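batch_manifest entry 22 of 60
target: Serine hydroxymethyltransferase
source organism: Micromonospora cremea
requested by: lab member K.T.
priority: normal
notes from requester: please return tokens only, no post-processing; we will run our own comparison against the previous entry in this batch. if the run fails, retry once and flag.
--- input ---
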Amino acid sequence: MSRNAESTAFRSALEVIRAVEPRVADAIGAELTDQRESLKLIASENYASPATLLAMGNWFSDKYAEGTVGRRFYAGCQNVDTVEALAAEHARELFGAAHAYVQPHSGIDANLVAFWAVLADRVESPALKKAQVRQVNDLTEADWFALRRELGNQRMLGMSLDAGGHLTHGFRPNISGKMFDQRSYGTDPATGLIDYDQVAEAAREFKPLILVGGYSAYPRKVNFRILREIADSVGATFMVDMAHFAGLVAGKVFTGDFDPVPHAHIVTTTTHKSLRGPRGGMVLCQPELADQVDRGCPMVLGGPLPHVMAAKAVALAEARRPDFADYAQRIVDNAQALAEGLLSRGAKLVTGGTDNHLVLIDVSGYGLTGRQAEQALLDSGIVTNRNSVPQDPNGAWYTSGIRIGTPALTTRGLGTAEMDQTAELMHTVLTQTTAGANADGTPSKAKYTLDPALADKIARQATDLLAPFPLYPTVDLT
Ligand code: PLP
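--- output ---
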């Protein structure tokens, strides 16, 4: 597609929207400007391609398509079938998966689909068999009551939140924590690394139905072969949530023991983080779970979003191209260069570095909370997010960490030299920020002081750093 065609497509779309509600058109335009101008280090964000974005803005949005390809509860789904089948085929080929379900609307939804597929397979199906009935509607009231209790009485073992696990892995504020009796495994306090012996011991003691691997803030590779062995040793189903690092699996940076797909019974992911697709989720699984996974809608999902499945098909096709592997490798090279740049300037990093797309800075080394550091960096044009560190004394709200990641800046084309300059800008901000005090003189976890002139200067330097790497260079809205 030529430069002209992409600009024309977006410009025309905005014109059409502006005729109805100009404020929406303005906000869409302003979002592009903001994204172009910010040094985005949010580890979970990226920039989807123009083709992926355009695949979402059309009449597929109007179609109801409950069911699965070729087996819908609505008539007229032949075109939805085409894009859903394509997305699933690309996903299977890309990840070497036996089965792919591309309907989940988000990562949380993908996890819910996976949890209920496992519960249906391991708890509900045996109960139906025992009662000699085909479906839940045929159970007696007493058997149904007993099954509901049994479904709500299962155990999950996942990575603790402050070690980098995700809320949807059985934590109380999320529905998964209300569904499962959850225990978590942490990391070795000395190294910050997963201690597989400790995971094995926790599994032996707790005997979970599901062992969950995967994270949103762990900067290292995970050995999924070992986790599968642990799951097998206690009869657990092994599930991996690769939402954050799916792009590194797709790009073959994580292979062998570090690729979850051949080792896990079921794998969930988002499609919008390192995978660089539309906002959404996906489930990959072994053949024996496929039927249960395909019941995701209407079990826990509303009707599928055909326009997003079309965009998933486009993004997954892009991820199957050879240049995606190069992109994935550059994500990791950049994260390592950023980590090196920070370390060499004296920063304290959880695990001392990274071998994936993210870096976790322990900002207590700068005398700051995560909240103070996040805000001071934002004042200086650097967009990050605060995050707990292992055994965090400041809890999940203020935190002691800053999580940064390189998928987005790598998409723009920034390389290792720019990562070192980014480290310099961050280090300057963090060393020049001082923690503030409350009115009564006690240390504040939120207040801080940073010379506004310095913040402005850093923000200008961040803009200069981005200037040679325009975002969406083929899209000109003027
Ligand atoms: N799983 C992991 C590991 C994540 O990091 C996230 C998002 O941050 C999710 C699931 C949830 O994804 P979504 O926001 O698309 O529901």
